[in-house]
Amino acid sequence: MKVTSYTKLNAYEVDGNDLAIYWNEQEHEPKENETEVYWTYDHCQAFASDSRNVLIEKIMATKYPTYGSEVAAIVNGGESAQEHEAFRTQAKALADGWVNK
User: CA-to-CA distance for 83 and 67, rounded, in angstroms?
Assistant: First the structure.
């Protein structure tokens, strides 16, 4: 899921037991009729108490919302499989970043 913010966000934000994870930060020039720079992020909502494996699953679900879509990316091979592997590596790094805090 993509989110937009007029302030830079931390990679991990906790509100009570809710954990928001943000990655793929992109800075954008102000929109027409606006003066503020804004940022977009990919975003995952989880619980602060979620295990590493659960965090990885939730992050992966932002790009592959069903088991079938994830399997299809792997089975299709080529660029789809490479993108899946790269995203899984990123998901593991994001989960580790929270778990190892």
Answer: 16
Backbone angles phi, psi at 13, to 5 degrees: -130, 130
Residue range of the domain that includes 88: 2-99
In sequence order, what DSSP letters do the residues of 23-54 get, joined into one string? EEEEEEPPPTT----EEEEEEEEEETT--HHH
Exposed e or buried b per residue across 31-42, where buried means at least 16 C-beta atoms within 10 angstroms of its C-beta: eeeeeeebbebb
Q: How far apart are CA 46 and CA 18, in angstroms?
A: 6
Q: How many structural domains compose the chain?
A: 1
Q: How far apart are CA 6 and CA 30, in angstroms?
A: 10
pTM of the predicted structure, to 2 decimals: 0.90
- The dihedral built from the CA positions of residue 66, 63, 78 and 53, taken in this order, carries a sign that is negative
Q: What is the pLDDT of residues 23-46, one digit of tens each?
A: 999 999 998 888 899 999 999 999
Asked if 44 contacts 62 with a C-beta cutoff of 8 angstroms, the reply is yes
